[in-house]
Write a structure and sequence with these properties.
Aspartate Aminotransferase, domain 1; seven-stranded mixed β-sheet; Aspartate Aminotransferase, domain 2; four-stranded antiparallel β-sheet; 15% strand; alpha/beta; binds pyridoxal-5'-phosphate; 11 strands; 13 helices; 344 residues
Length: 344
C-alpha cells in the first residue's frame, strides 16, 4: 500500500497552515466579530473555506464521498498544487505525453520541475514501451494523463492508463476535463482503488461555467488534506460557490446540452471531411475537433478575417487547427466560411 505521506515534500509535511476565522469558529449563527469584515452588506462575509454545501451537492451529482473532493480555483489551481505538494523544486521530475494541455508544463516551469516528455504515438496514444523505463526514475514524482486529451481530442486506451496506475508509485493525475463528452467510462471509480490517483474534472466545459473558475479533484482524503493545507484559505469565492451550486440543480438541461454538442460534433466532423481544405479530421471524444490542413497559419488568418476564431495548434502539431464545437448556426457559418475560402 502506498503511503502518501512519504510522497509529500518535507516542508509541506511540517507546514502549519493558516488558520482562518472560519476555521476557528464553525457555527453559522451569532454576532460575527472575528474576521474584521464590514458588518453591512450581503457579500460582506468571507466564504466557507471548505465549500461544504457545494461539495455535498457534487458528492450527490458524481456519486463520490465528500471527503474525497477538493475544489480549486479552476483545475489550473489543482495542477499547481500537485507540484507544490509533491515535487521538490530543482530536483524532481514530472512526466507528460505531448501534445497535451499546456498548463502541465507551465506549472512545472513555475515550480522549477524538470519535464520528461514521451510524445503520443501516431494514433495519439501513450507510448508504453517508452514510458516503462521512466517509471523506475526515483526523481519522477508526478504523471499527467489527459483523457480525452487536449488538443488531440481522443481518450487514452483504458488498459494503458491502468498499466501506469498499477506500475507507478508516485502521483498520477488523470485530467478528465472533457469526460462528459466521452462515451467511454470515467476513471472516477478508480479513486478508491488507487490512493495515489488524483482525478480532475471541471465546471468549465460540459457544466458551462468557465467564467466561474471551479475545478474538482477527486482523490484520497489524505491528499485532500494536503491540498487544504497549501491552498489560500478562501480560494473559491461565495459568488462562485453559489453559481456552481445552482448549475448542479440543472442536471437535465446539462444532459440535453451535452447530447446536442455531441450530435453537432459528429455533424461538424462529417461536414469538415467534405471541405477540400481539410486533409484530416481526427476522431474526437471531446467537445472540439482537431483538423490537419495544408497551411494552418494561412487558414487561421483567413478565418479570423471572417470573424471566426479557432485555435491554431500548429506549434504543437504541424498544420493543425483545433475547433470547438459551437451551436448549429455557428458550425454552419464555419463550414460556409471554409467553403468560401476554398473557392477564393
Ligand atoms: C485538459 C484541460 N484540463 C484543464 C483545463 C482547465 O480547466 P479549468 O478551467 O478548470 O482551469 C483545460 C482548459 O482548457 C483543459 O483543456
Amino acid at each position: 500500500m502506498i503511503d502518501i505521506n512519504k510522497l509529500v515534500r518535507k516542508n509541506v509535511l511540517k507546514l502549519t497552515p493558516y488558520s482562518s476565522a472560519r476555521d476557528e469558529f464553525l457555527g453559522k449563527t451569532g454576532i460575527f466579530m472575528d474576521a474584521n469584515e464590514n458588518p453591512y452588506g450581503t457579500l460582506n462575509r468571507y466564504p466557507d473555506p471548505y465549500q461544504k454545501e457545494l461539495k455535498k451537492a457534487i458528492s450527490g451529482f458524481k456519486g463520490i464521498s465528500e471527503e474525497n473532493i477538493f475544489l480549486g480555483n479552476g483545475s489550473d489551481e489543482i495542477i499547481d498544487l500537485c507540484f507544490r505538494v509533491f515535487c521538490n523544486p530543482g530536483k524532481d521530475k514530472v512526466l507528460t505525453f505531448p501534445p497535451t494541455y499546456g498548463m502541465y508544463e507551465v506549472s512545472a516551469s513555475v515550480n522549477d520541475i524538470e519535464v520528461l516528455k514521451v510524445p503520443l504515438t501516431d494514433s495519439f496514444q501513450i507510448n508504453l514501451l517508452k514510458v516503462k523505463p521512466l517509471l523506475e526514475d526515483k526523481a519522477l514524482k508526478l504523471i499527467f494523463i489527459c483523457s480525452p486529451n487536449n488538443p488531440t481530442g481522443n481518450a487514452m486506451n483504458q488498459k494503458d492508463v491502468e498499466y501506469i496506475l498499477k506500475s507507478f508509485n508516485g502521483i498520477i493525475v488523470i485530467d478528465e476535463a472533457y469526460n462528459d463528452f466521452n462515451d467511454k467510462p470515467s476513471f472516477l471509480n478508480h479513486v478508491d482503488k488507487y490512493p495515489n490517483l488524483i482525478l480532475m474534472q471541471t465546471f468549465s466545459k460540459a457544466l458551462g461555467l468557465a467564467a466561474v473558475r471551479v475545478g474538482m479533484a477527486f482523490t484520497n482524503p489524505v491528499i485532500v488534506q494536503y491540498f487544504n493545507k497549501m491552498k489560500p484559505p478562501y480560494n473559491i469565492s461565495a459568488i462562485n460557490q453559489k453559481a456552481a451550486l445552482r448549475k448542479l440543480n440543472k442536471g437535465e438541461v446539462l444532459k440535453v446540452q451535452v447530447v446536442k454538442i455531441k450530435k453537432e460534433r459528429e455533424r461538424l466532423s462529417s461536414e469538415l471531411r467534405k471541405v477540400r481544405i481539410t486533409e484530416i479530421v481526427y476522431p474526437s471524444d471531446a467537445n472540439f475537433l482537431l483538423i490537419k490542413v495544408n497551411n494552418a497559419n494561412d487558414l487561421y488568418n483567413k478565418l479570423v478575417n471572417k470573424n471566426i476564431i479557432v485555435r491554431n495548434r500548429s506549434n504543437a502539431i504541424e498544420n493543425c487547427l483545433r475547433i470547438t464545437v459551437g451551436k448549429k448556426s455557428e458550425n454552419d457559418k464555419l463550414i460556409k466560411a471554409l467553403n468560401d475560402i476554398n473557392n477564393d
